[in-house]
Amino acid sequence: MTVPDRLLLGSGPSPVPRRVLDALAQPTIGHLDPAFAEIMERCKDRLRQVFQTTNDVTMPVSGTGSAGMEAMVVNFIRPGDRVVCGVHGLFGERMADEMRRNGAEVVVVEGEWGRALDTARLVDALDERTAALFVVHGETSTGVRQPLDGLAAACREHDALLMVDCVTSLAGAPIGIDEEGVDVAFSGTQKCLNVPPGLAPFTAGERALERLEPGRSWYLDLTLLLGYWSGGGGGRSYHHTAPINLIYALDEGLQIVLEEGLEARWVRHLDAHERLRGELAERGFERLAPEGEALSSLLCVRVPDGIDEAAVRRSLLLDHGVEISGGLGPLAGQVWRIGVMGEGARPEAQDRLLTALDKLL
């Protein structure tokens, strides 16, 4: 089988380093093997460092980021719960849909695609009946970073949980779970962690765990998953066969992040974002998100009039081996979404994109 070599600069997956691919190719062992249990524990510890949390319940859920989203809902939201959901892009819409499917009373605080939500509007929507507030920290459909300032304090005043999607921001933009007061968060491996898709990093704090009871999903039931992910090798109970080699890859990807250092990595992503933004602005592409609201790990730009954006993207992929993403929802056909994630946040990767783009334009 021959797979084409692509430079992945879209909204995900992102470029996978050779070290991660080599880890993925290590021999498969049993999911209850004591040697695998050691890798599981190390992976949990490294995830805590990257999430910047002391939460004991921190682990990768078997499944893509959407499995992390669903795990958040089925374990901590009950039918009839009143939930405030910030929606200013596709992934906020998805969470609102997920909440409704699970019987929640969803109060949507809606905003313009391409802008952050006013935190005062989110706070004002809370009341004494609210069980949780959900926001997308890094909205992948627009390249917007949502401020979290003041949300945790407001949630605590109403005895509500603060739930956060940090799929595209974890390890690429500043977010400290404990510092921000986030109660439950999920992410994905295929963004700034530069690991193939298939796992959803997940963390839950004590305030959330006080509400934990057997969930409506057997596969994503946290009470069952903890029996597998906690304890030593001999104390784990069988729940499902974990994607063993993917966990090898995640463990290595997290190690790469920690070797660089989170602060240094955030600076590198921001510098790469601004560099690419400037280069594209010279070519007529303007960023969608305004100053102060942009997500450093994903650059969303408006495509100038007169450019067949789909045809250019197709040629970038098939003729130059560079993948970027088009717009979604109301932005379809109007914007490009370019990943600035991990190995994609380096001059060499961006120069390859710019060189190919100049030939096409």
Automatic annotation (TrEMBL):
GO biological process: glycine biosynthetic process, by transamination of glyoxylate
The keyword Transit peptide is annotated on this UniProt entry: no
Keyword RNA-binding: no
SUPFAM superfamilies per record: PLP-dependent transferases
E.C. number: 2.6.1.112
Taxonomy, superkingdom: Bacteria
Positions where N6-(pyridoxal phosphate)lysine occurs in the chain: K191
Ranges annotated as spanning the membrane: none
Cofactor section: pyridoxal 5'-phosphate
GO MF, one annotated term: alanine-glyoxylate transaminase activity
Keyword annotations of the record: Aminotransferase, Pyridoxal phosphate, Transferase
PROSITE patterns on file: AA_TRANSFER_CLASS_5
Matches recorded under InterPro entries: Aminotrans_V_dom, Aminotrans_V_PyrdxlP_BS, PyrdxlP-dep_Trfase, PyrdxlP-dep_Trfase_major, PyrdxlP-dep_Trfase_small, SP_NH2Trfase/AEP_transaminase
Residues the record lists as binding substrate: R337
Ranges of residues in domain Aminotransferase class V: 8-327
Family: Belongs to the class-V pyridoxal-phosphate-dependent aminotransferase family.
Full protein name: (S)-ureidoglycine--glyoxylate transaminase
Annotated organism of origin: Capillimicrobium parvum
Lineage: Bacteria, Bacillati, Actinomycetota, Thermoleophilia, Solirubrobacterales
